[in-house]
């Protein structure tokens, strides 16, 4: 009998993401009839060292900038190179795509074309085997549900307000199960809506790109205090049950010419920003701060990490861009205690897994993450369970492209039933 895992057919089309921007969807079918579909996400606050998302040069005609070139690259170059190969040979397939592309940043075929194919291949293999993707990727001991970081106040490049910091997240750590943690998060999200309405009026509850509110605020302390109020109003303990995390995305408010950071309406030099983060972290018992400095400043991350003595997790995103090489530099400098994992920053599943392995081997937490431009694709929910936690970051508990991931995790929790464990119970923070 012929091998059912062999890739029989690869196809691609242009679909839309949550911002209405065109993006790439790839479909992979095996001889056995297994089907895998994956959609490439897109960032707004992109790191300088990310792999390239290939877009057509038609910005003047169409603001969304189409991806027809990336789509035709899948059909014309990738499909002929991978058809006929066993879909379980993920590394070989990823390597072939890297070779066909031939550039350092995947700019010829496009990281969007390559990633959507890479993920679709894994999904087609899992579908052929008739096992859930998380088990195909992580094996039978994949049974830990990740702790969600829920971005419920949006600022920076994701919102039209004056908040320099991009994301204010709640982290429901102190719960028995993933579904209980999600329930608490939803209660707080709803309560925050009432709090914001009372304080700033009805327009304050308009939402940003990731489904969090985008109130007319300017000050970081103001946003954090409002979150704390909503947490306490719901009767949750902000020390033990629901913590607060930030994604500063500081490269976005770093002014290269004056070497200062524009935050809370003032300009802060690097040393002043260090003091600023220190006081915020201690005052509010912040669980984690992502990208607190410009993406080039490995030393500043390290200084803050040292100062906070591991009480606050320092997270690399634009700093490390899911790249083994960048993470190696961060490890050398001791810059981070956690890293954001965004498969589209690097462009293949194998390279994403290599990055995760390097992080784990160095006791660095992984936070599997969405992008601000997302879709109904729920692959990262499976990836988060496959790598056994501890974190996932995928926006507010609202809007279909965000709930696609949370809902899949709820399904996985049900599937695992008595074997499911919540990472919040394992994390010592
Ligand atoms: O900075 C981030 O962590 C992400 C996702 O929240 O934003 P973007 O996808 O716009 O880079
Ligand atoms: Mg980030």
UniProtKB/TrEMBL annotation:
<dbReference type="Pfam" id="PF00113">
    <property type="entry name" value="Enolase_C"/>
</dbReference>
<comment type="pathway">
    <text>Carbohydrate degradation; glycolysis; pyruvate from D-glyceraldehyde 3-phosphate: step 4/5.</text>
</comment>
<feature type="binding site">
    <location>
        <position position="393"/>
    </location>
    <ligand>
        <name>substrate</name>
    </ligand>
</feature>
<dbReference type="InterPro" id="IPR020809">
    <property type="entry name" value="Enolase_CS"/>
</dbReference>
<feature type="binding site">
    <location>
        <position position="317"/>
    </location>
    <ligand>
        <name>substrate</name>
    </ligand>
</feature>
<feature type="binding site">
    <location>
        <position position="290"/>
    </location>
    <ligand>
        <name>substrate</name>
    </ligand>
</feature>
<feature type="active site" description="Proton donor">
    <location>
        <position position="210"/>
    </location>
</feature>
<dbReference type="InterPro" id="IPR029017">
    <property type="entry name" value="Enolase-like_N"/>
</dbReference>
<feature type="binding site">
    <location>
        <position position="372"/>
    </location>
    <ligand>
        <name>(2R)-2-phosphoglycerate</name>
    </ligand>
</feature>
<dbReference type="InterPro" id="IPR020811">
    <property type="entry name" value="Enolase_N"/>
</dbReference>
<feature type="binding site">
    <location>
        <position position="371"/>
    </location>
    <ligand>
        <name>(2R)-2-phosphoglycerate</name>
    </ligand>
</feature>
<feature type="binding site">
    <location>
        <position position="317"/>
    </location>
    <ligand>
        <name>Mg(2+)</name>
    </ligand>
</feature>
<feature type="active site" description="Proton acceptor">
    <location>
        <position position="342"/>
    </location>
</feature>
<dbReference type="GO" id="GO:0004634">
    <property type="term" value="F:phosphopyruvate hydratase activity"/>
</dbReference>
<keyword id="KW-0964">Secreted</keyword>
<feature type="binding site">
    <location>
        <position position="393"/>
    </location>
    <ligand>
        <name>(2R)-2-phosphoglycerate</name>
    </ligand>
</feature>
<dbReference type="InterPro" id="IPR036849">
    <property type="entry name" value="Enolase-like_C_sf"/>
</dbReference>
<keyword id="KW-0456">Lyase</keyword>
<dbReference type="Pfam" id="PF03952">
    <property type="entry name" value="Enolase_N"/>
</dbReference>
<feature type="binding site">
    <location>
        <position position="167"/>
    </location>
    <ligand>
        <name>substrate</name>
    </ligand>
</feature>
<keyword id="KW-0324">Glycolysis</keyword>
<keyword id="KW-0963">Cytoplasm</keyword>
<feature type="binding site">
    <location>
        <position position="290"/>
    </location>
    <ligand>
        <name>Mg(2+)</name>
    </ligand>
</feature>
<dbReference type="InterPro" id="IPR000941">
    <property type="entry name" value="Enolase"/>
</dbReference>
<feature type="domain" description="Enolase C-terminal TIM barrel">
    <location>
        <begin position="142"/>
        <end position="429"/>
    </location>
</feature>
<feature type="domain" description="Enolase N-terminal">
    <location>
        <begin position="7"/>
        <end position="137"/>
    </location>
</feature>
<protein>
    <recommendedName>
        <fullName>Enolase</fullName>
        <ecNumber>4.2.1.11</ecNumber>
    </recommendedName>
</protein>
<dbReference type="GO" id="GO:0006096">
    <property type="term" value="P:glycolytic process"/>
</dbReference>
<keyword id="KW-0479">Metal-binding</keyword>
<dbReference type="GO" id="GO:0000287">
    <property type="term" value="F:magnesium ion binding"/>
</dbReference>
<comment type="function">
    <text>Catalyzes the reversible conversion of 2-phosphoglycerate (2-PG) into phosphoenolpyruvate (PEP). It is essential for the degradation of carbohydrates via glycolysis.</text>
</comment>
<dbReference type="GO" id="GO:0005737">
    <property type="term" value="C:cytoplasm"/>
</dbReference>
<comment type="similarity">
    <text>Belongs to the enolase family.</text>
</comment>
<feature type="binding site">
    <location>
        <position position="247"/>
    </location>
    <ligand>
        <name>Mg(2+)</name>
    </ligand>
</feature>
<dbReference type="GO" id="GO:0009986">
    <property type="term" value="C:cell surface"/>
</dbReference>
<feature type="binding site">
    <location>
        <position position="158"/>
    </location>
    <ligand>
        <name>substrate</name>
    </ligand>
</feature>
<dbReference type="InterPro" id="IPR020810">
    <property type="entry name" value="Enolase_C"/>
</dbReference>
<dbReference type="GO" id="GO:0005576">
    <property type="term" value="C:extracellular region"/>
</dbReference>
<feature type="binding site">
    <location>
        <position position="342"/>
    </location>
    <ligand>
        <name>(2R)-2-phosphoglycerate</name>
    </ligand>
</feature>
<keyword id="KW-0460">Magnesium</keyword>
<feature type="binding site">
    <location>
        <position position="166"/>
    </location>
    <ligand>
        <name>(2R)-2-phosphoglycerate</name>
    </ligand>
</feature>
<feature type="binding site">
    <location>
        <begin position="369"/>
        <end position="372"/>
    </location>
    <ligand>
        <name>substrate</name>
    </ligand>
</feature>
